[in-house]
């Protein structure tokens, strides 16, 4: 039942990642999405990773443009503007991330567009809402929203997140803007204009880390995968056949972990009796845990932890993660050799 947007006409005039991911999401839900690219094509077509075939389109581009009809138009030309105006007449949604200085030349000034097409839901991605002409890319926002300063290890420089998560999070904000605007249009008959900030998407995703700074006036530091306020959470256990991560969020879960590992004595050790104490003595605690797990087999240990209701997971590389039969069945689309990931984890069901 993932065709809940069947009949919806979307013009995706965006480029790079956040906007195109939004268009692919709408296509996955059944909308008819036309991707409008410049005559030279979306720049990400040429963003080939090391080892990709030079004559092909990049995986980067393919990841964000599944299920669309693609056309190439010069929207600053008379022919391009006439084509766009004709398409907008019966379009439901417009997605774009053009620079502010180009909007008038393309006939996409939000106020003017709303007057000509009051039915249209118009969602635009901006980089820095307070600096409209400044170029914004994912890694720049990672840096200035504070993410790079937290990512990595204390003895190493700040590190970029390995996925363009600022763009991914901005895409989720754009999806919310589209769906919320469609609801408003259904209520009022008019489609609103919504702006989503890439910088703001990063800032609002700081969540507990950002609020901790505001409430406690403390600055988060790089500490690898370890959680800043829970132990052992995000910490790695070494086994004879690979690493696993644990996410112990309560004293009860800690007790269950210790029982599985045959370390029940740690539960009554005052250094580890409560989460604040485990935070204080985290390094010693992990030495105790790893001293046992290093001789264990990962799969059997994970099974025992899951049985005891201890949150834990194997540390897999991406190839291993995508080889899971469930993942292939539910999250991979396309034929062999042209497989791509879905952009959404939503499954709709109807019960009569």
Tags for this model:
40% helix, alpha/beta, 352 residues, 2 domains, Rossmann fold, 16 helices, formyl-coa transferase, domain 3, six-stranded parallel sheet
Describe the structure.
With 352 residues, this protein is α/β, with parallel strands linked by helices. It has 2 domains: 9-204, 3-Layer(aba) Sandwich (Rossmann fold), CATH 3.40.50.10540; 233-315, 2-Layer Sandwich (formyl-coa transferase, domain 3), CATH 3.30.1540.10. 40% of the residues lie in helices and 14% in strands. It has helices at 18-28, 59-63, 78-88, 103-106, 110-116, 138-144, 147-150, 165-188, 198-204, 207-216, 251-261, 275-280, 282-293, 298-307, 318-322, 325-331; strands at 9-12, 32-37, 69-72, 93-96, 121-126, 193-197, 233-239, 242-247, 312-314, 332-333, 340-341. Strand 7 (233-239) and strand 8 (242-247) form a beta hairpin.
List the helices and strands and how they pair.
Layout: E1 9-12, H1 18-28, E2 32-37, H2 59-63, E3 69-72, H3 78-88, E4 93-96, H4 103-106, H5 110-116, E5 121-126, H6 138-144, H7 147-150, H8 165-188, E6 193-197, H9 198-204, H10 207-216, E7 233-239, E8 242-247, H11 251-261, H12 275-280, H13 282-293, H14 298-307, E9 312-314, H15 318-322, H16 325-331, E10 332-333, E11 340-341
Helix pairs in contact: 1-8, 8-9
